[in-house]
Specification:
Distance between the termini: 68 Å
Shape: elongated
Largest sheet: 7 strands, mixed
Bound molecules: iron/sulfur cluster
Radius of gyration: 33 Å
Number of helices: 21
Mean pLDDT: 83
Structural class: alpha/beta
Length: 604
Amino acid sequence: MRRLDTRTTVGLSILLFFLGVALVGPLLVGSPTASVAQPLLPPSAEHWFGTNGQGQDVLAQTVVGTRSTLLIGLLVGTVVTLIGAVVGATSAFIGGAVDAIISLLINLFLVMPGLPLVVVIAAYLPPGPATMAAVLILTGWPWHARVVRAQVLTLRQRDYILAARGIGEPWWRIVAVELLPNLASLLGSALLGASLYAIGAQVGLEFLGLGDLASTTWGTNLYWANNDSALLVGAWWTFLPTGLCIALVGVGLSMLGFALDVRSNPRLGVAADAAPRPTAVGARTAVPDVANPAFHIQQLNVAYGEQRVVQGFEVALGPGKTLGLVGESGSGKSTAMLGALRLLPAPATVGGGAVRLGSLELLGSPTSTLRAVWGQKVALVPQGALSALNPVLRIGEHFEETFAAHGVQPPEGVEARGKVLLQKLGLSPAVWEAWPHTLSGGMRQRVLVALGLALDAPVLVMDEPTTALDVVVERQLLRELLHLQKELSFGVVFITHDLALLLEFADEVGVMYAGRLVERAPAAVLAGGGARHPYTLGLLAALPPEPGEDRKAKSIPGSPAQASAPPPGCAFHPRCSLANERCRRERPALVGERHAVACHLVQP
Ligand code: SF4
C-alpha cells in the first residue's frame, strides 16, 4: 500500500508540475524566439538556463516547449488509446467477417516498420502540430487495437462473463460492469504508454528536422542545440534542461502507469475502491414452481453439426442424492450435462428425449424460463474456480451480484446469508471481503460451491470441481459438501475422471465412453465387485491399489475413442480383450434398470 502511494504521489507530482508549467509558465517567461543576449551564454542570475546559439533564453524555450510537447503527447495518447479500444473491442465482440477484416487491417499496419513509416509520412506532409499529431495517431492505434482485441477475446470466454450472458444481462451492463473494470488497467496503462511514446516520437522527429522548426518544442530545442554544435563547444545548458524534462516526464508517466496497474488489478495490490458496486437488474421471469426437484434426463443427444457427441444419455437424480459421471477426457460427460442444462453455446444442438426438473421440461422451455431456473433450481459449479470469479470483485460482491441478478433478497440479508454459507463450507466470514486472487484453489472452489447454494438450488451440477486440488483438500471439500447435502437435501451431479472418488462419495455412478453411457449402477455395487462392463472393469483395475491389496494398477490398452467419430459396433471394441465379431459390427444397447450395462456379453 505504501509503495503504491509513493509511486502515485511521485508520478502525479511530476505530471502535475509539468502541466502547471505548460499552463502558467509561458505567461511568466519572455518570448522564446527573441534574441535577448549574447549567443551561448552560460547560466547566470539574469538567464538561469543561459542562452542558445541565437542568443535566445533557454529557460523560456524550455518552458514554452513544455506546453506544445505535452499537448501533442497527451492528445495523441488519448486518441490512439480510444481508437485502439473501440476498434479492438468491436472486432472481438462482433467476430466473423468483421473481425477478419479489422484484424487484416491491424496486421497490415503492424508489419510496416513503425519508425521509418513515421519518418516518411512526416517528411511528405506540411510541418506543424496537426501534422505531427495526425502522423502519430495514424501509426500508433493498431498496436493498442490488437492488445484490446486479444484481451476482450480472452475475457468473453471467462465463466463469469458467460454466466452474465446466461442470466440475460444486457450487453452494455456486461461491458460496463464485467469487462471494463477488467480492462481499466490495460487502458490506463495504454493511455500513459501511448502518451509517453508520442512525446518521444515527436521529440525524435523534430530533432531530425521533420517538425515545424519555427515553433518552440522540446524537439526543436534539441534540434537547434545540435545545429549549434552545442556538444562540441561545451554548451551543455542548451540541451540539458530539455533532456531532463523529457526524462522526468517519462519517469512520471511510467510511475503513474504502474500505480494505475496496481490500483486496477487487485492481484498487484489492494485498492479499496477499485471494484464497481453491482447494481440490481430489472425484473426477472418468475421462477417456475418445481414441486418435485428430482432431475431426470431421458435419451438426450448432443451434436455439433452432423457429428453426434452424446447419444442416448439417460440418468436420474433423486433429492439429496449424488450421481457421479465418470469417463476419460472427451467421453462426453460434461457435454451431456451442459447440454441437458441448455448451457452449450452454438453450434451445439441438443435434442432427443427430455430433461425434467420436477415438473418442468427444460428442453422445451424458452430462454426466459431457463434464466430463472439457472441458479435458483439448478446451479453449476464450473471447473476453473479462478476464471469463474471476477478478479475485480470481492467475494461478497459475487454474492450480491448473484442475488441482484435473480431479483432475490434473502430474509436474513445478503451478507448474513453469504457468510453463513461460507462458514458452512469451512471458510472464515472474513473471506467476504477478500479478493479472489488472495484465496487458495481450495478456498476458491468452496466459494463457488457456496455461490451455487446461495439461491437454495435443489440440484447442484459440479463439473470436475476438484481437479486442481490436492487429494487432502479434495476429500475435505467433498466431506463438507456431503455434510451440507444432508442438512439441505440438495441433489448433486458430480462430473469427474476419478472413479475412486465417486465410489467413496456418490450414491450412483454413470460410466461414459465415446459419448454414451456404458454402465450405470449404485456406487456400492461397483465398489463391491459388481461392475460388469469391460470398460468399467478396466477403470477399476487402473485405480491404485489400496494399502494391503495384492495387485498392481493396470492401464487400459489403446486410446479413448472419439465421441464424434466412434468405431463401428461397440465403440470400446478396439480396446476390449473380449471383443468378438458381433462387437465389431453391432452397437450394444444400455440394458437394465437399477444396474444397466451396454455390452453384448452381459445378460440383463
Ligand atoms: Fe467388449 Fe464387446 Fe462388450 Fe463392447 S460389447 S465391451 S467389445 S465385449
